[in-house]
Design brief:
The protein is an alpha/beta fold. Helices cover 53% and strands 13% of the residues. The chain has a five-stranded mixed beta sheet with strand order 2-1-3-4-5, with helices on both faces.
Amino acid sequence: MIYGYARVSTKKQLNGNSLEEQVIKLEQEGCASIIQEQYTGSTTDRPKFDALLDLLQTGDKLVVTKLDRFARNVTEGIDVIRKLFAKGVKVHVLNVGLLEDTAMGNFFLTTLLAVAELERSMIIERTQAGKEIARTKNGFKDGRPAKYNRHQLDHAMGLLAAGNSYNEVEKMTTISKSTLVRYKRASGK
């Protein structure tokens, strides 16, 4: 059986890496079952991927669109692919080709995974360098910007104090109940 695996780090991922684009490509390759997951490539804890690896049997083929969808860490990638080879599972990376359990295939695999890991490390370095530059500028605030200002939150707290329920205040202010509860707890109001 031919299985496909599609993974994104974030729901906003674009440029050929969105879940939709990956699924279309995997369907075109004849995948009978396509497993989709949103997990960052830096974590090895991917429940759906792990379940898929356990499901694969001799003669099956695992298809991914790009090697970095499969693994970004050289050691993990080689380990997983070698385990699949030992089970008799074929691995097809669409932008690379069919990976084979041969000396040349293993060399090619190691080289590709090393390049993917290098690319990921360079992205992290560029992101950190950009943050360092941003920190030197006036008005820089680390993290996400606040969605609501203090005046809006205090107004919502006043509505709660006046006897309105969280659900009523949420409807009136569009501030979620969880945000209201968190702000109330933090402010002691």
